[in-house]
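Write out a record, fold above all:
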Amino acid sequence: MHPSSCDTFVALPPSTEGQRIIFGKNSDRPCDEVQEVVYFPARDYSEGEKVECTYIEIEQVAHTYAVVLSRPAWLWGAEMGANEHQVCIGNEAVWGRESADDEEALLGMDLVRLGLERADTAEKAVDVIAELLQKYGQGGSCMEDECGFTYHNSFLISDRKEAWVLETSAKHWAAERVEGGYRNISNQYSITTKIDKEHPGMREYARSKGWWNGKSQFNFTTVYSHMTTARIEASGSRFCEGKMLLEKSNGRITAETMMDILRDKDSGINMEGMFMTTGSMVSVIPVDAALPAVHYFTATPDPERSVFKPFIFVANIGQLKETSSPNYGADDPVKKKPRFQSKPDRKHNLFVKHEVVSAVIETHKERGKKITQSMRQVEKEKMTQMEMVLSEGVEDPDLWVDLFPKSVQEEMDTYSKN
């Protein structure tokens, strides 16, 4: 298996319809990995408290925001998610001149969750992640395996008014502000000469390494990335395809547009094989702060055979049980050293049922077509319902507390009927 992963997209006015920001990501991971969708409410903490991330413990902050996350079930962080202030973050693996074979530190996925828990704007999330990188670094295996699959990270971060691309190389980084139009990232550096924030020592470090002469215009991608590897070539193709798919709908990009892009197999964005799309997310964030945002998650592999189910931040949301994997606590093989000596069953209820349905779709053409049509109908009905919420707002928050669990149940009912 030659690992590669992920594509993340954002579209802002004037490229979208209806004064909305549309965020989307496919999480491409090992095909046997379970991705869960989980919710954590806002919390206050006492001074001196710590938080245990995937591999290391760090200082906790006084307050964390409510978050909804799509994450590989074995780790603490997340591939993608959103918070109550409608900040969305997705990360990508990137490889460059700096070795990524670092000691265990914060995973890029830990940084996604920490950014969402601690920042109420996209720009603040950039600052949070940059500060954590400086203090704790990034490193450790990014797969539930002893293979030592490691990488550095890039991030696409959005809120109600703008987006930021943040790209890292060890502790060095550059960030680009996106105030309109569309932007996508894949498994390659993409920030060139438009750098709106940066690590204060980034340029001098590159000069000391002989990567930059200190005189020519500084281009982050040229200076920090490897230009000739199989991984760069594969991601470059998906990056260009994704950009073209966004361009095709420029000016009228909607949630449906983004879902179609994430489902696109010809481009390689919807990945198949040993490394495949194991979870997908699309968020619709109105520019108007008086209106709620809607965040759609699959919690299952292959968006073409999955239902995007809506989630809205309201008070009193409980655990998302049907998409939460078993918790093994201190007995989890990830927590014990040496790590990854065994793999427990991490399948959540929806995953188990979806696995059966996927096999039927694969092996019984006509029956599979009928099931897929039923799944799309559930999705369409939910999206129609969400259009009213996105346009008119939420009058009674209690009506939406169980929106995601009920949508999951409707999906599973569809499986049973077919």
